[in-house]
């Protein structure tokens, strides 16, 4: 016996000497550094890296742009005031970068809260600039362009010429001034206004003198806002996409071109009734490669698809689908030097790298690490053999924070080298362990998948308290990545002791187009039943404690939360962030009525039964769950009025409720980092206060 103790004692000493990592704190969670984009230079010698971090003292964010030398392995800061409204672009030679700066990034306010506006010419406007950064001199040079703010920029055929577009902001003719005098600050809804138009400019920059001089000409005016802009040197064309503030009709989102030999002609290249995005030009300048997501509803048909990949031939106008054999969701892509493609495709909970050599070939999966690959970038020059196969990307997984990686060849993917260390702190913390969890829906035996985040040190334990944290969208998914935001905080909730289920309910991407479309006509009831089936399975398996169940979500996740608490009193606490309760009024005032109309199968007057059945407001008298509600004050995606309606109803019913309103915030809560931090802080407090309470303490109505 004594000998056994002697043999055991050294093991005890060794075990006790192993350092125990501390758990993640709220402050650390929100100091996570995001990497919105990266971009390899055409010659492969340099890599641009955009990082974004919170500046707590100034209630803002710092957007840094770095250049990393792939040969020198040195990283140089270009600016800490990068504008988020435009992704920096390499010049054709790879020796210069064009970018925009601003003192305080306010992208969210521009894109998510601007419903109507009236500008007066008497208001002075400051001089605007485009900035050029020279790799050799390491100088950032301002290029004055007048008073209009550029929305998108592209290089021409050399390093001295650019095209850019601006959105008009002032009346431009006598009639406009007369109308302004008659109507003052009254807004005439749907009447065309200057911001409905764009102006495209050509600018030539002479760098031979110390201070760059410019020659600027108008190419032409376009009768809609522009979101993406490309130049084709071989076809001498500008290619761009149209957009509208209100997503009412897919006809408003198409691809157009201008022939630079005859700029008076504006050609519409697509009639897809779909959303085209991430346009990229092939190296020969003859094809535009782009992602497209279809959301179309008509009397005769309805179409919804995951994001797919297409090629538009500029020589004949033909459109061809690429990667036709891939059944998942294509998130991103990059064009290889040989005009083949790198494709980031989501299947289930992983996003992996695929390649396709041509439209006639199958896609090939390149086995790397399980997790999520993002922001893939490739050099474009085939004249540099040692660089033409190089790729860079951002990678993360459940337990590995996002960093930038680089590899000489896709064949060496598993041996990619990490070149940043922005989030080292998270490797020093005891993070939750995560695994996939599958169950069948009680409704029709469809297989549903989700992620289970276990509290640190309790992997695969039983009888745990549960938080169901529901992703937004609905056309999105919870995947194997380390992405920390005010809306994606499963790892922090698990650190606080909750087993977190992130369900990929029907409507989620990565499971095929049919899975995506099965929520039409039942946008809340069907995914809601999928989620409840998962909770029941966890209870049956003894994994969770049936008396400690909570639920929450943001955006569409909150829509589902609001519906779930009308269907069961099993949840002790609920968290509703920017969620609707009435879909007639939501359809009428949100900026994306197209989505609501598609999900409900029509307009409120011809699908009224579905609108009523899916709207939780008509069943709120069944709610007994204490609910914390949060919303952005000027959200136009899910207007704050929906949260006010939910709060008022629960207050009248005597259900514990609190509403937090974040000033100047739109849907994404990205203007002030404190807002997201306070949101999650209060949600954790709410779970702690109500999540463990006895369900017998039912609400008592305060109104009749």
How are the strands ordered across the major sheet? 30-31-33-32-34-35-36-37
CATH architecture term of the domain at 432-690: 3-Layer(aba) Sandwich
Structural class: alpha+beta
- What is the assigned CATH homologous superfamily of the domain at 432-690? Alpha/Beta hydrolase fold, catalytic domain
Report the biggest beta sheet as strand number plus sense, adding barrel if it closes. 8 strands, mixed
Query: Would you state the CATH class of the domain at 432-690?
Result: Alpha Beta
How would you describe the shape? globular
Number of strands: 37
pLDDT under 50 segments (min length 5)?
1-16, 105-111, 116-121, 697-704
Name the descriptors:
disordered C terminus, AB_hydrolase_fold, alpha+beta, 704 residues, 6-blade_b-propeller_TolB-like, 13 helices, signal, eight-stranded mixed sheet
Structure notes:
18% of the residues lie in helices and 35% in strands. The chain has an eight-stranded mixed sheet with strand order 30-31-33-32-34-35-36-37, sandwiched between helices. Strands 17, 18, 19, 20 and 21 form a five-stranded antiparallel sheet that branches. Helix 5 (490-495) links the parallel strand 32 (464-470) and strand 33. The longest helix has 18 residues, at 673-690.
């Amino acid at each position: 016996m004594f000998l056994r103790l002697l043999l055991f004692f050294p093991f005890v000493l060794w075990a006790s000497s192993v350092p125990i990592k501390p758990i993640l704190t709220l402050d650390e969670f929100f100091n996570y550094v995001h990497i919105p984009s990266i971009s390899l230079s055409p010659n492969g010698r340099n890599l641009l890296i955009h990082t974004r971090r919170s500046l707590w003292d100034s209630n803002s964010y710092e957007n840094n742009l770095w250049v990393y030398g792939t040969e020198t392995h040195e990283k140089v800061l270009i600016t800490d005031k990068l504008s988020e409204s435009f992704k920096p672009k390499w010049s054709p030679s790879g020796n210069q970068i064009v970018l925009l700066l601003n003192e305080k990034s306010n992208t969210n306010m521009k894109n998510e809260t601007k419903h109507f506006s009236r500008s007066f010419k008497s208001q002075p406007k400051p001089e605007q600039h485009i900035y050029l950064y020279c790799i050799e001199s390491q100088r950032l040079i301002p290029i004055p362009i007048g008073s209009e703010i550029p929305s998108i920029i592209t290089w021409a055929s050399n390093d001295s010429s650019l095209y850019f577009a601006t959105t008009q902001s002032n009346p431009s003719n006598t009639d406009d001034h007369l109308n302004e005098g008659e109507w003052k600050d009254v807004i005439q809804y749907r009447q065309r206004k200057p911001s409905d138009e764009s102006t495209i400019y050509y600018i030539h920059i002479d760098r031979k003198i110390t201070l760059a001089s410019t020659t600027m000409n108008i190419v032409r005016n376009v009768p809609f806002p522009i979101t993406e802009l490309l130049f084709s040197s071989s076809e001498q064309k500008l290619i761009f996409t149209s957009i509208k503030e209100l997503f009412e009709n897919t006809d408003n989102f198409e691809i157009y071109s201008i022939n630079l030999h005859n700029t008076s002609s504006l050609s519409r290249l697509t009639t897809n009734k779909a959303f085209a995005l991430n346009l990229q030009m092939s190296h020969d300048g003859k094809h535009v490669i782009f992602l497209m997501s279809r959301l179309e509803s008509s009397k005769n048909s309805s179409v919804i698809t995951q994001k797919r990949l297409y090629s538009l031939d500029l020589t004949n106008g033909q459109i061809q689908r690429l990667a036709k054999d891939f059944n998942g969701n294509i998130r991103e892509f990059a064009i290889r030097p040989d005009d083949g493609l790198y494709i980031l495709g989501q299947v289930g909970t992983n996003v992996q790298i695929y390649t396709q050599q041509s439209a006639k070939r199958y896609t090939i999966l390149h086995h790397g690490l399980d997790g999520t690959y993002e922001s893939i970038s490739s050099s474009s020059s085939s004249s540099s053999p040692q660089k033409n196969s190089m790729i860079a990307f951002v990678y993360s997984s459940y337990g590995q924070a996002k960093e930038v990686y680089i590899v000489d060849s896709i064949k060496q993917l598993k041996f990619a080298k990490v070149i940043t260390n922005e989030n080292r702190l998270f490797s020093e913390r005891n993070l939750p362990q995560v695994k996939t969890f599958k169950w069948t829906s009680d409704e029709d035996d469809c297989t549903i998948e989700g992620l289970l985040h276990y509290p640190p040190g309790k992997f695969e334990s039983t009888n745990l308290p549960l938080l169901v944290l529901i992703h937004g969208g609905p056309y999105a998914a919870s995947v194997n990545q380390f992405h920390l935001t005010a809306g994606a905080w499963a790892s922090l909730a698990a650190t606080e002791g909750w087993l977190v289920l992130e369900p990929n309910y029907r409507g989620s991407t990565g499971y095929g187009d049919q899975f995506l479309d099965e929520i039409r006509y039942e946008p809340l009831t069907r995914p809601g039943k999928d989620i409840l089936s998962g909770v029941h399975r966890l209870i049956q398996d003894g994994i969770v404690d049936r008396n400690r169940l909570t639920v929450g979500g943001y955006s569409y996740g909150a829509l589902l939360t609001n519906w779930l608490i009308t269907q069961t009193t099993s949840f002790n606490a609920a968290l509703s962030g920017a969620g609707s309760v009435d879909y007639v009024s939501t359809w009428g005032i949100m900026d994306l009525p197209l989505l609501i109309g598609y999900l409900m199968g029509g307009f409120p007057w011809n699908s009224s039964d579905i609108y009523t059945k899916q709207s939780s407001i008509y069943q709120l008298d069944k709610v007994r769950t204490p609910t914390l509600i949060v919303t952005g004050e000027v959200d136009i995606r899910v207007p704050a009025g929906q949260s006010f309606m939910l709060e008022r109803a629960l207050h009248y019913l005597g259900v514990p409720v609190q509403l937090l309103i974040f000033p100047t915030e739109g849907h994404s809560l990205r203007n002030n980092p404190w807002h997201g931090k306070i949101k999650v802080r209060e949600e954790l407090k709410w779970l702690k206060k109500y999540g463990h309470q006895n369900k017998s303490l039912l609400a008592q109505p305060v109104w009749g």
